[in-house]
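Standup notes
- DV: blocked on the single-chain target, sequence here:
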Amino acid sequence: MSSYDSLAASYDGLMADAAYLKRADYLDKCLKKSRIEVETILDLGCGTGTISCLMAEKGYRVLACDASIEMLSAAMMKSAGMENAPMFLHQSMEKLRLASEVDAVISTIDAINYLTKEKALRETFKRVYRWLRPGGQFIFDVNSPYKLRRMDGQLYTDETEESYCVWRTFFSQKQQVCTYQVDLFRLRRDGAWERDYEEHRERAWTEEELRSALAEAGFTKVKLTADLKQKAPGAEEDRWIFHCEKK
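- DV (later): unblocked, structure below
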């Protein structure tokens, strides 16, 4: 079973604390400072489309892609009836292919960490660069190595009225990968509980590795900040944001 196949239906309820509105406002402010006018943006690894819809509500024409059909189904249901609904594409990040260039690319809530192989990371950045207009911004966040290493051996629970989720996390020093073992219990209409199991893996990419892959793709102007801020991250920052510009 692929990542998020079972979790997709309950994802939004479990991620209620992700501060999507604040993140969308931050992205909007960053894009308004772009050297080119930003009309069309790509949401890379869009998940259930919350950020895609929020950016569309701000007036952007949004393309959004994800490798999970289940996540995209939830996203399309969410956007149904929107006057300026995003266009959702079933594509993996490393196989990105668009009909035309976009003015900006965004990727949020650690989608890039799900690229666990260096080849996939480098190919993704090359494809982003290919489909980004000159002068356009590529803004993405990642869980920092500090956060993922700290999660080794931890257990987390999330609960809503209709779901209960248990996350067990293990970090491999050799692979630099954090594995999330997810047990999801969902309440059925007949009152019984249904159990699903998934595994998720996130790579702890270092700043040097990410900068190297970005440079190889062609990005020469790269800035790293703390989450939702404009200042450099501290040593114990959980989430980083990379701001890149295509020359």
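- Follow-up: DSSP finds seven helices and eleven strands in the chain.
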